[in-house]
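Q: Could you fold this chain for me?
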Amino acid sequence: MTTLLHINASARGAHSQSRALAQTFIEGLTARDPELIVETLDLFEAELPEFGTHAAEAKLALFTGRDQTPEQLVAWEQARTVFDRFAAADQYVINIPIWNAGVPYIFKQWVDIVTQPGWAFTFDPETGYSGLLTQKRAVTVYTSGVHQPGVPVEFGSDFATPFVQDWLNFVGIKDIAEIRFAPTVLTEDAQAGFATAQERARELAAGY
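A: Sure. Below is the predicted structure, expressed as structure tokens.
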């Protein structure tokens, strides 16, 4: 059976437009494949472990061949649990509201937990980095209040999209599709714009 992990990076709960668009896409998929297993990871509710001093030292210990301390082992095992849930899925839907031109901090925390050597990627001194999460697919959903591609810089910037795209490629996920609803402030009819984004989600699901 195929497993889809829905990663919700919005803090707005039922009011989240990015989450609603992700759900529209997922509903389209499950209508076509009732056996699809869908799991949801609400990052703001997940109580993610910190990737702080102990975890960073545990990572360095692996690089240098040193034994990990008990505290480092606990931190590394906590990170591994988060990664295993991520790696177990075949497909991903990630909804991301753009905050201050970037991703919400909780999404960056999650990325820093799961993106570890030997888990998500390898490194070769001659060829560089190689992602290990191959043969997987992802759909990204972005929303923003003002910025959209093509508007003047006075209306903001978007560092979220290239960051997510680059990270997915880095860990080996090359098959990526995108849904976007932006901007909501500059759009004359925001509801019509949202309806267009929903239709994009349905069409994408129909051909996925």
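A (continued): Helices lie at 17-32, 53-64, 70-87, 105-114, 160-170, 190-206.
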